[in-house]
Design a protein that fits this description.
alpha+beta, Cyclic Phosphodiesterase, Chain: A, three-stranded antiparallel sheet, 19% strand
Length: 254
């Protein structure tokens, strides 16, 4: 992030995600599955599936593709009044210097309601603590939700507790509602199609390599509805040496 970036564009949203390292087979697989690399902003060929056309598969991953292959740690937010991208950058560096790498246990494809996601299986207490630390530590950078933001969230039924969390943290799936996951599809409603995609995903993500959580990834959305881009990576335990993926979004705010 360009340290002279002191005035955020008003429509930009920032998000703190986990995204596998660029040389990880998990990152390569996830980007190809969704059909886009959010670090290079390039389209990628998706795998061919049995009983599902390329056009159907592309449509059924469209929303997931816009966000990019990731797991949410702090959901997208606009910067609060008086906060700058440079301040967020400094806070991220300081936070990540104090963190330690984690292994995501036994990731595998499973259903989360009506969509597919990669989920860990085993002890996730350390991951849950990290996610909540991200939510609370960076909440001072988050602008309050607008009425439009709240209305958009309420399009999907929320429990009373989830509404409380939405009001408190700007996102309903925090604290005890948090479930670490990496989204692989949009909602799938047609049973035969859904089963074909599920089987293909389980085969595609049979990867003989650990999935390491070694840092945070800062993603940005330059305007409402545009694809999220991986703006910068921050390695855990590293002193001021975060690895830049693509900084065009940040430089444009200088």
């Amino acid at each position: 992030m360009n340290e002279t970036s002191n005035t955020p564009a008003p429509e930009v949203r920032y998000a703190l995600y986990f995204a596998p390292e660029q040389n990880s087979p998990w990152w390569q697989a996830g980007c190809h599955w969704l059909g886009r690399d959010p670090a290079s902003a390039t389209a990628l060929p998706q795998p061919a599936l049995s009983n599902v056309t390329a056009a159907e598969f592309h449509q059924l991953t469209s929303d997931a593709r816009r966000y990019g292959f990731h797991a949410t740690l702090k959901a997208p937010f606009r910067l609060a009044e008086g906060c700058t991208p440079a301040q967020l950058d400094a806070a991220l560096r300081a936070f990540c210097q104090q963190q330690h790498s984690l292994t995501i246990p036994a990731p595998r494809v499973e259903w989360m309601g009506n969509f597919l996601a990669l989920r860990p299986h085993g002890d996730v207490s350390a991951i849950n603590r990290l996610a909540m630390d991200c939510v609370s530590t960076f909440d001072s950078f988050r602008a309050p939700l607008s009425a439009t933001d709240i209305a958009r969230r309420q399009r999907h039924p929320l429990s009373d507790r989830q509404m409380q969390l939405l009001q408190r943290w700007g996102y309903p799936y925090t604290e005890e509602e948090f479930r670490f996951h990496m989204t692989l599809t949009d909602a799938l409603h047609e049973p035969v199609q859904a089963e074909a995609i599920c089987q293909a995903a389980q085969n595609f993500f049979t990867i003989d390599a650990p999935l390491q959580l070694n840092g945070l990834a800062l993603f940005t959305e330059s305007a409402p509805g545009t694809p999220f881009q991986l703006a910068q990576r921050y390695a855990f335990g590293a002193a001021n040496d975060s690895t830049t993926a693509t900084v065009n979004e940040m430089k444009s705010q200088s």
